[in-house]
Amino acid sequence: MFIGRKAELQFLKQKYEADGGQLIVLYGRRRVGKTETLRHFCQDKPHIFFSCRECSDKLQLKSFSEKMLQEDIPAKRYLSTFPDWDSAFSSITGLPWGDKKRLLVIDEFPYMCRENPSIPSILQNLWDELLKDANVMIILCGSAMSFMERELLAEKNPLYGRATGIYKMTEMGFYDAVRFFPDYSPADQVLAYSILGGIPHYLRQFDPALSLSQNIKCNILTKGCPLYSEAEFLLHQELRETAVYNSLIEAIALGSTRLNEISQKALVENTSKTSVYLRNLIELGIVRREFSIDVSLKETANSSRGIYRLTDHFFRFWYAFPFTSYSELEAGDVDGVYQYAVAPFLHEFAAFPFEEICRQYVQELQKADALPFRYARAGRWFGRTTVRDTDSPDGLRIGETEIDLVAFSRQKKEYLIGECKFKSSPFRYSDYLNTLAKLTPQKEHAEFYYALFSESGFDDSLREEAEKNDRLLLFPLDAIVNCRLEKPSPRFQA
After folding, report:
1. Which end of the chain is more exposed for a tag (fewer CB within 10 A), N or C?
2. Within 13 Å and on the Cβ side, how many CA atoms surround 194?
């Protein structure tokens, strides 16, 4: 069963139905589901789907020729292999598909260009002279992020400005990912997403008929299963010096977020080297550099600002748990590692991904016009602000803190402050007071609303407060996971 990717399929459908030639560049990190999405898009249409290989240019041309010459095109009568790429690519116009678009998908396009760097120039010439006005759609797909972004889409590349559509595929969101586990409880759906994220290849490794604990043990911790070697395989395929990258990823997975902290934890001599390594991990979609939601574009250029997070949930899980118990797993102690190194800490591990899920839920609420106002920007906030301090005269002080969600309107006249608790105990009124104290100076010039998200509900005092305060919104786990989108009533939600 094919799950999700509605936006990607709609984008491709619109381009397919548009008049004239279409040259589409679709790219994204490995395992994100590009090939499967393209095959699903093509399945009800006449098409040529060519998957490039890591081979010589002559072999690549031979394979492409065989694929094209399977169709009843004029060249089939007198050729067994095209003599060059110009004639091979131009043959697409001869496909005998009536008024249907001539659809050609070239998957892993960077492999084709690696052995023949002139391929983009050949395509550019054909596009300008023949294909742009023809009834064709060519999709160039690739996983080599640096090639796709720095070369193929760069101004110096011959194909620059020719693409009629550029789409970067990212991982699935929570609400598509949990469709892989329809019978899991809401809490286990959160835990499964916290472990696997939204990468379809990872999600398919879990058997929805097995419990979460069985899946972790059988499909991650057991030597020989695909996910056991996934992290090592991907790093070896994409990078050199994998030992250094292992140390950096482990440092981030275990809680180091600042450049200096990561360098020290990973035992890298200086931060400039660490920056280079981290930049490579960012290109692969494993790490991201994150800034507080309120920083300006100018501040993001400062190399010392921002924090580093693992964007890939599975890498975060692997380096937080199995990677640190690798010797025991190699010896086959799966049950022991799960019982003592994974299970006691899994719930706490899911707290950070739960914040991401809550932010996705707020995005869905915005789409449904179910928020008190329409926000312009939303994300995590971190920095120095007012925090609650019962020992100070006015109950407040200035300190470093984080806020799970801050959303504000275009003129910053309205703020939504969100706090997320993935815990076995209810969200307490005292926690709400701590949230209430933050960003106090901004309250002189803006309206503030509060959204509290909780796995285990809310204590009596908080529910009573929500009954009389229409600026306090309470969201329990069931509403979040099942994406209830009606305008929230504090009485109903609590």
Report:
1. N
2. 23
Tokens coding 66: 């065989």
Give 242's pLDDT tier (boundaries 50, 70, 90). very high
Please, which residues have CB within 8 angstroms of residue 10's CB and are 6 or more apart in sequence?
none
Q: What is the pLDDT of residue 476?
A: 96
Mean pLDDT of 98-103: 94
In which band, very low, low, confident or very high, does the pLDDT at 53 lie, cut at 50, 70 and 90?
Answer: very high
8 A C-beta contact, residue 101 and residue 137: yes
Please give the Cα distance from 465 to 88 (Å, whole number). Answer: 71
Rounded CA separation 457/427 (Å): 6
d(CA 58, CA 70): 18
Quote the pLDDT of residue 335. 97
Which residue pairs, CB below 8 angstroms and at least 24 apart, start in 12-16?
Answer: 12/38, 12/41, 12/139, 13/41, 15/137, 15/164, 15/165, 16/45, 16/101, 16/103, 16/137
* CA gap 76, 118 in Å, rounded: 25
Please list the residues that pair with 450 across neighbouring strands: 417, 472
Give which of 267, 182, 266, 197 is closest to 230, Cα–Cα.
197
Residue with tokens 């507080």: 292
Categorize the per-residue pLDDT at 147 as very low, low, confident or very high, splitting at 50, 70 and 90: confident
Compute how many other C-beta atoms are within 10 angstroms of the C-beta atom of residue 4: 19
**CB burial string 437-470: b at 16+ within 10 A, e below:** bbbbebeeeeebbbbbbbbebbbeebbebbeeee
Closest CA to 273 of 284, 263, 265: 263
For residue 488, the model assigns a pLDDT of: 56
Q: Give yes or no for a contact between 423 and 346, defined as CB atoms under 8 angstroms apart.
A: no
Instruction: Report the C-alpha gap between 304 and 296 in whole angstroms.
Output: 14
Q: Which residue has the tokens 């979609």?
A: 285
Confidence at 213, pLDDT banded by 50, 70, 90: very high
How far is 134 from 454, CA to CA, in rounded Å? 55
Dmax (CA) of the chain: 92
> Can you tell me whether residue 206 is helix, strand or coil?
coil
H-only helix segments in 81-141: 85-90, 109-115, 119-126
Beta strands in 266-319 (DSSP E): 287-290, 307-310
Query: How long a stretch of residues is the chain?
Result: 494
pLDDT higher than 90, residue 486: no
Strand partners, 417: 406, 450
Any bridge partners for residue 448, and if so which? 415
Nearest 10 degrees: Cα torsion 49, 55, 58, 63: -30
Supply the pTM of this predicted model.
Answer: 0.91
Rg (CA), the chain: 26
DSSP 323-357: GGGHHHHHTT-HHHHIIIIIHHHHHHHTHHHHHHH
